[in-house]
Specification:
It contains ten helices and eight strands. By secondary structure, the chain is an alpha/beta fold. The protein folds into two domains: 49 residues, no CATH class; 200 residues, Ethanolamine ammonia-lyase light chain (EutC) (Rossmann fold). The strands form two sheets. The protein has a six-stranded mixed sheet, with helices on both faces. The chain has a two-stranded antiparallel ribbon with strand order 1-2. It starts with 7 loop residues before the first helix and ends in a 7-residue tail after the last helix. The relative contact order is 0.12.
Length: 270
């Protein structure tokens, strides 16, 4: 009787470059069946696409993040942009860059205490709730530890909902901080739905462009490690204080990863 279960090896043709996949999460060196992708590759793509969509659309549990910060003895306040919901946020980027009236009033009430902090830390949902949910509390706690060691004061962590990067300028300007550290979920890729970014701005104020900020990107277990990211941030803070500016003129000259890179051989030369 003829066997209707064909041998997998006779159907799926392996790509000769498949060995390079151990160096990257990118979809390279995929095999094929005839002129099509293999079932495994197609299912993996569909899963990655679903994870990216979820990262953008699933709401963040800010109460859980508040609880994590509270357990680390870090007070926090919850703010909201003028984008009333996720749909408005995605369609109107301008509204995600501005605080709503209630949040502005809350911040102005806070500064009546007369306390002015060196740094304001903002956690914004951005375009990846997955990244913020998984990494923001740990990253924030480590940043606070380094700020304290450097003798820099900080206020309550601001949890900004439906927020984009520029909303941090308004928050820091209201409370009077000269250092703005904003953590935000980055636009998810098909291999990185959990990528967190840190935007640092020296002397923030409403109306600044991205040219005035420094970005530390791809913070996640498979990307830039948290300790390396925070060390890089503290270097930027120190240099901005010395030079009196941040942004494109402040070049990142840290050598945090050089030792690691020197130990890795170029796979193209192997």
């Amino acid at each position: 009787m003829k066997n209707h279960h064909a041998d997998k090896q006779t159907i799926a043709i392996e790509n000769p470059w498949s060995s390079l996949r151990r160096y990257t999460d990118a979809r390279i060196g995929l095999g094929r069946t005839g002129i099509s992708q293999t079932t495994q590759a197609q299912l993996a793509f569909q899963l990655a696409h679903a994870q990216a969509r979820d990262a953008v659309n699933i709401p963040i549990d800010f109460e859980n993040i508040q609880q994590q910060l509270s357990e680390a003895a870090l007070p926090s306040i919850t703010l909201h942009s003028k984008a009333t919901d996720r749909q408005v946020y995605l369609q109107r980027p301008d509204l995600g860059r501005q605080l709503n009236l209630a949040s502005r009033a809350m911040l102005k009430k806070q500064i009546q205490t007369g306390l002015v902090y060196d740094a304001t830390i903002v956690v914004a949902d951005g375009l990846s709730s997955t990244a913020v949910q998984q990494h923001s509390a740990e990253v924030t706690a480590l940043i606070v530890e380094h700020l304290t060691q450097s003798g820099l004061s900080y206020g309550p962590v601001c949890l900004a909902q439906q927020a984009r990067v520029a909303v941090g300028d308004e928050i820091a300007e209201i409370v009077g901080s000269r250092l703005l550290i904003l953590l935000i979920g980055e636009r998810p890729g098909l291999s990185s739905p959990d990528s967190l970014g840190i935007y640092y701005t020296y002397r923030p104020k409403v109306g600044l462009t991205d040219a005035s900020r420094n970005c530390i990107s791809n913070i996640r277990p498979q990307g830039l490690q948290i300790q390396a990211a925070v060390s890089r941030l503290m270097w930027l803070i120190k240099e901005s204080e010395r030079l009196d500016y941040s942004g494109v003129r402040l070049k990142d000259r840290t050598n945090i990863e050089n030792d690691l890179l020197e130990k890795q051989r170029n796979f193209l030369l192997e």
